[in-house]
Amino acid sequence: MLLRCVNRAIARHGHSSAAVHESPAEVISTTIGSREVVGWGYNGQPFYMDRADFPMPAIRFREDTPDIKELREKEKSDWKKLSVGEKKALYRASFCQTFAEMEAPTGEWKSILGGSLIALSLALWMYMGFKLFVYPHEKLASFSEESQRAQLRRLIDLEANPIEGLASKWDYEKNDWKK
């Protein structure tokens, strides 16, 4: 989502009259603020993205505050002197989520399953409604035995599908099925 917002901001700056006088570095600095650029990033652009397949964003997650700057100076010395809380604060200043948080299930399957079941139940209700109110309750005359025999006889008389179909299996001289 942050990436989408940054892309929109860059697109807006790129087409505005003020952007004509700005260098690319100035445009980027206005979109990322004072966050530190720490690497190349996923696509070479200074954007922040939490991705498990590419866990090295180009910029830090948060801008440096005085507390974070103090921790960054303390970080340059021995890490054993840092408390667990300070290490976590440094991590959260650089990254939004841990790998466990990125890989955690979102529960999105519940809404998909619910929507699918609702659609299925609506389809069943529509089917039952058509069956009760639209389709005739009595069978059509064409479903009776004698009507089906008459239809078969008509197809034989018309010599329908004489090569591989019905007429090919009928012996017209004996007036019976071929054996």
Polypeptide structure, described:
One of its GO terms (molecular function) is oxidoreductase activity. Its main location: mitochondrion. Keywords: Membrane, Mitochondrion, Mitochondrion inner membrane, Oxidoreductase, Transit peptide, Transmembrane, Transmembrane helix. The chain folds into three domains: 102 residues, no CATH class; 26 residues; 44 residues, no CATH class. It is 49% helix and 2% strand. It contains seven helices and two strands, in the order H-H-H-H-H-H-H-E-E.
Described by strand count, sense and barrel closure, the largest sheet is: 2 strands, antiparallel
- Total number of helices: 7
Spans of at least 5 consecutive residues with low confidence: 15-19
In round numbers, the mean pLDDT is 85
- Choose one word for the global shape: rod-shaped
Our count of domains comes out at 3
Ends distance: 73 Å
Number of strands: 2
Spatial strand order of the main sheet: 1-2
Helix content: 40-55%
Helix-strand string: HHHHHHHEE
Gyration radius over CA: 37 Å
